[in-house]
Q: What sequence folds into this?
């Protein structure tokens, strides 16, 4: 068998095949719609921007701000001569677990080298993790002692009173339940008065009877709204917590929620009673109900009583 009479590869045939193939390909190609770059519409742009904003706000509220610890420092007169006294306030741990964040809080607190540390309530959460709270306390160091009062969460957790006092003592913390303790720091004579939750008038009156006029009297109360009219003139400073500063804030807008016994107090320094007694509301270290903060960072507060050390 031979293919000499049927030459599939002669020039004319090859040309026709090639031409036909090119023509067919060109037709097919020309029938496809031209691909265009997708347009970013205004609606899509706004949607993407909103999604990015929501993600950023969520990360800030849930992760960044709840752990963005701030240090507030205040200088207050004590009325006594001698070296200044450094008092560090820690409030509202709401500890579920003793985690890395709280370890850093304890490290920073101790690094400030306070003379005394005062704790103004709400150490526990629903988990009643007293071991975690005691682990946190054991990381704290203050030359002249650590003193505490109870908050509402201690009562809600059914871990309060003498039972809680014994637990705290194991970690080197003295719990004050409507009582006074005296501390001498150099030339300063301090009395620390612990007003128990909910800071009732009868207990406040009793503490005022226990206070001594010729000492600097520091009153600890978990809640800031109580009967300030019963404060004596020689109460030098009142320290409170409880409000978390509102926890979630917006500029120029009152807090969305404040707990009972917060009253008009949100955070920072106020003056109360006819004697214009300074009262400070700490924003706290932890969170409650929702684990979020916005425009309301957690706080340690360092008070210096007396004249600051001279600069050299």
A:
């Amino acid at each position: 068998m031979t293919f000499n009479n049927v030459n599939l590869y002669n020039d004319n045939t090859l040309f026709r095949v090639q031409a036909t193939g090119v023509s067919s390909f060109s037709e097919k190609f020309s029938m496809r719609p031209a691909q265009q770059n997708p347009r970013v519409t205004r609606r899509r742009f706004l949607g993407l921007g909103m999604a990015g904003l929501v993600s950023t706000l969520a990360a800030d509220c849930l992760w960044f701000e709840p752990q963005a610890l701030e240090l507030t420092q205040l200088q207050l007169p004590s009325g006594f001569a001698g070296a200044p006294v450094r008092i560090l306030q820690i409030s509202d741990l709401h500890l579920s677990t003793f985690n890395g964040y709280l370890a850093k809080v304890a490290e920073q607190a101790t690094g400030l080298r306070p003379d005394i540390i005062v704790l103004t309530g709400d150490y526990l959460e629903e988990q009643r993790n007293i071991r975690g709270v005691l682990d946190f306390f054991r990381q704290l160091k203050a030359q002249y002692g650590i003193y505490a009062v109870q908050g509402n969460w201690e009562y809600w957790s059914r871990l309060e009173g003498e039972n809680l006092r014994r637990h705290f003592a194991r970690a080197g913390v003295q719990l004050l339940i409507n009582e006074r303790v005296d501390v001498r720091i150099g030339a300063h004579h301090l009395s620390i008065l612990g007003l128990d939750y909910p800071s009732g008038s009868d207990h406040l009156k009793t503490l005022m009877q226990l206070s001594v006029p010729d000492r600097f009297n520091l009153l600890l109360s978990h809640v800031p709204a109580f009967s300030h009219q019963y404060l004596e003139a020689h109460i030098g400073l009142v320290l409170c917590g409880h409000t978390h500063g509102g926890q979630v804030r917006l500029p120029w807008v009152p807090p969305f929620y404040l707990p009972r016994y917060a009253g008009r107090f949100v955070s920072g320094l106020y003056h109360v009673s006819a004697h214009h007694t300074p009262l400070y509301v700490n924003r706290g270290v932890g969170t409650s109900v929702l684990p979020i903060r916005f425009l309301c960072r957690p706080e340690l507060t360092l008070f210096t009583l007396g004249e600051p050390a001279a600069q050299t």
In short: Confidence is low (pLDDT under 50) at residues 1-31. The radius of gyration is 34 Å.
